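Tokens in:
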């Protein structure tokens, strides 16, 4: 049954997805870079600490290395792995691989050895370009018979004397439809998957967004992100395709918000790209600096953006720089949407706004049967158009599952990518991001959307993150992390009022700084485990009398804590409904009789001790204190 009126369906599928005709891409990335090198050979292209390379110098170095790779047999559609430290050599090697006609496979030395090995094995590169850092990272994974190794640190440099002029297209077979890079993303099974992206898909990204940004030769970009994260594609080519400067951010500097802000000021960076997690720390660093910046564009990506975290930035900087939120996916070439922000947005609550699609893409919000959903209804995001990648390397089954025929397009062979992300249309034709369709956890039989908990707690802590932890086997708990100046008691009371009991986090951990992955995203696995009393707000008061002492011993055993006091709250210490049942059963075995309902109405140790031995009675428990599963698990009297 079709529930959408024809007019609304036409608006969703065609009206808000009307594609603006564009000229087809006819040049590769490196050809466009070579054009800049011819027009402005003396202009600074690359800044790496004290080293500055002009466009002419960078082009010449890349050409020599490209000729060496070509002599080794590297050909179009071949893959060449890059594993080097951040620096000028990394950019030279990247350009050289493209100039030789091949695609680069970035392997960040900071990644886990197991991941590097899996990516190297899957990509089966024709050559591996590395330096001392890369050789150490790939130790044990390099098979001399599988790929030729090109060492950038070798004393004998066989390409030093080669010609520095551009390689002709007839020699390299340069074609916009050739593979440009293969970037590995995390897989749900733990096996990384290689996304294949062509030259034309990157070139059209900049052509389709240039009207919004106006990038040019006066811009200075910072290469903050790992070359193994596709945000780096936007940073590298945003500078080099327009004749701008690319400032490489040393790894240690990227880890220090204070040092990074100083670098931005020193180099006069005008275009900054950040994940919200990294930017939040940069804002805090700027608050302790008296220096001014020259930023004109700040682009967010990689994570959902909580608008209220921008309030300190706007209070300090006003509209000195345009902030833009861009939702993107590696499989659809870095960015999908564009959402310019204003200072007033920092006072908004609710889902992350991701704005409108890039003009040469289509963005659909579909239900489980892949039918358009009405405005305001949650559905899965599908992306069609020129940015959709070729697919996954060596994963035909997964490619067929995620890269689908676009039934709404009139273009022959048009495809769309199934993102796994949730969103909804708003009445003005923009999209709100609502998280992942697989970003759910199941605790004690309840399916819980972590984003819903975060949305409620964000009223007090704009930067809150909620995860499910299982620090003890079989005991999965919700833990909320934040860096706001707000007490645990305030957060818990707010959560109790706004959420069902089974969705109220067991612990609230305040962090001084957020752990980040090499890609600059929040590293959820590195968030610290709750430390029991260290997270409590109540002062310790020793148990009094035999009953309180015996109860304290039981609580310590069940909750895995030491030093339980008489004012401690069972649920604030990590207790939940199932542990409540276990506690009551253990108490009965030891002759301490109480009802599970007593624990919900008298949750502190001292209060529960007073209820022990009392006659059974009817108790009116506030509905928000009773877990939805309490009735099902309450033992018989």
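Residues out:
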């Amino acid at each position: 049954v079709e529930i959408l009126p024809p007019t609304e369906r036409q608006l969703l599928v065609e009206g808000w997805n009307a594609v603006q005709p564009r000229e087809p891409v006819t040049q590769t990335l490196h050809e466009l870079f070579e054009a800049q090198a011819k027009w402005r050979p003396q202009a600074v292209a690359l800044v790496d600490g004290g080293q500055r390379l002009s466009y002419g110098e960078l082009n010449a170095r890349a050409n020599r290395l490209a000729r060496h790779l070509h002599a080794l047999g590297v050909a179009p559609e071949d893959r060449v792995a890059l594993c080097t430290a951040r620096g000028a050599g990394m950019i030279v090697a990247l350009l050289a691989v493209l100039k030789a006609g091949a695609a680069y496979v970035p392997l960040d030395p900071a990644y886990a050895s197991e991941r590097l090995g899996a990516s190297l094995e899957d990509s089966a590169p024709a050559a591996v370009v590395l330096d001392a850092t890369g050789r150490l990272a790939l130790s044990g994974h390099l098979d001399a018979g599988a790929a030729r190794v090109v060492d950038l640190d070798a004393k004998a440099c066989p390409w030093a004397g080669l010609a520095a002029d551009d390689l002709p297209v007839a020699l390299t077979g340069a074609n916009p439809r050739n593979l440009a890079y293969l970037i590995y993303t995390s897989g749900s099974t733990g096996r990384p998957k290689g996304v294949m992206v062509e030259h034309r898909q990157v070139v059209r990204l900049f052509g389709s967004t240039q009207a919004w940004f106006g990038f040019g030769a006066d811009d200075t970009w910072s290469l903050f992100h790992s070359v193994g994260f596709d945000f780096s594609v936007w940073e590298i080519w945003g500078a080099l395709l327009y004749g701008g400067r690319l400032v490489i951010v040393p790894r240690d500097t990227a880890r220090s918000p204070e040092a990074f802000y100083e670098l931005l000021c020193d180099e006069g960076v005008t275009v900054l790209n950040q994940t919200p997690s990294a930017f939040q720390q940069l804002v805090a660093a700027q608050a302790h600096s008296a220096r001014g910046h020259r930023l004109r564009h700040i682009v967010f990506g990689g994570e959902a953006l909580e608008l209220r975290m921008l309030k300190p930035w706007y209070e300090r900087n006003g509209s000195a720089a345009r902030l833009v939120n861009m939702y993107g996916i590696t499989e659809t070439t870095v960015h999908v949407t564009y959402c310019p922000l204003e200072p007033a947005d920092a006072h908004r609550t609710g889902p992350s706004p991701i704005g409108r699609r890039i003009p040469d893409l289509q963005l659909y919000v579909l239900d489980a049967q892949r039918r358009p959903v009405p405005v305001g209804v949650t559905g899965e995001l599908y992306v069609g158009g020129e940015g959709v990648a070729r697919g996954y390397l060596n994963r035909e089954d997964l490619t067929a599952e995620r890269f689908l025929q676009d039934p709404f397009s009139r273009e022959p062979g048009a495809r769309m990518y199934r993102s796994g992300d949730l969103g909804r249309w708003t009445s003005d034709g923009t999209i709100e991001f609502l998280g992942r369709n697989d970003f759910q956890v199941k605790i004690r039989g309840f399916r819980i959307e972590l984003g819903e908990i975060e949305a409620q707690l964000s009223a007090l802590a704009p930067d809150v993150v909620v995860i499910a932890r299982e620090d003890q086997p079989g005991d999965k708990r919700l833990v909320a992390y934040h860096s706001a100046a707000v007490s645990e008691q305030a957060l818990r009371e707010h959560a109790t009022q706004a959420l069902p009991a089974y969705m109220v986090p067991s612990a609230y951990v305040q962090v001084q700084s957020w752990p980040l992955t090499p890609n600059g995203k929040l590293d959820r696995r590195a968030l610290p485990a709750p430390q029991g009393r260290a997270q409590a707000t109540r002062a310790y008061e020793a148990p009094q009398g035999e009953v309180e002492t015996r109860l304290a011993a039981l609580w310590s055993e069940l909750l895995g804590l030491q030093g339980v006091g008489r004012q401690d709250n069972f649920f604030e210490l990590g207790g939940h409904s199932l542990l409540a049942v276990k506690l009551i059963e253990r108490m009965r075995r030891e002759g301490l009789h109480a009802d599970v309902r007593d624990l919900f109405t008298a949750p502190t140790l001292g209060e529960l001790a007073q209820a022990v031995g009392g006659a059974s009675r009817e108790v009116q428990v506030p509905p928000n204190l009773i877990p939805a599963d309490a009735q099902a698990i309450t033992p018989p009297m």
